[in-house]
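Batch manifest, entry 17 of 40.
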Amino acid sequence: MDEDLVFCAKYPFTKEAKEYLSSVSADFSKIGDETIEAASERVKSSLAGSRSDRLKQINSSKRSYLMNEILTFPLAKILASLNGDYFVRKQFASAESKEVYSLLQLDSDDNLMKVANQLLSLEKKGDKFAVPVVEYLNNVPEGKEYKLVNAELAGGRVLLEKETIAKLVSKYVYNSIIATSVDKKKVPKTFIFFADELSKHGRESFEKMDFGPLNPDFFPPCIKNIVLDLRSGEKTAHQPRFVLATFFASINMPV
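Output type: structure tokens
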């Protein structure tokens, strides 16, 4: 199996993956409905929480599957952006970043360096990886264990384990998806159709979420009403869901 193609399928956000798409003359304005639908399914699986074990599939799949993995990533980013629902984009970004995090931890140090060096100034120091302090602070993951005060420093660099580098890269992937912006006027109508279709799946996914033993009485009135509507099974529009997702993020509650 072509190792370069496998690498691109695992990490479709890298320059190697972009160069591959360019080499096969991928023209997004001429993409067929079947491929756009596959990209839509990639987003839907994130919303449904049904993402399969990509590592196992990628390592045992045919060339056509690998090519599909490379192509559907940028298309899925476009669809999630065009949809306009923050929850849809957030769930897709979260699923993609978690997969990258898992893949990098299981991959070779050489591939980790190959990916991470596109985002950071990374050096191998024994069994650890060194990143300039400023770059680390600009990309530091959430969590007490990642705070600079808990990190090992040497010569103006932070010495990190492989897991932390994987976390830094996954955060980059998450942020890049969230920041994706696409002008609806510049894409074919087929993209708009599939993007709009995601709203239904985003709504269903949001309304099925388990908020745990929350007591809405402790929330502001507007947030309380949204939670109660969701628990009652009432359909909830985009704006209230966006408000709720933003509120939960502000109190460090996973969405």
